Amino acid sequence: MDSSDLFVLTSVGSTDPALAIAATRFGARGTLDLEYAEREAFAGALARLTRFARGPFGVKLGSNAVELLPEMLGPDRPSWVILAGGRRNGHGEVAKTLRDAGIEVFAEAVSRAEAEEAVG
Question: pTM for the full model?
Answer without folding.
Answer: 0.91
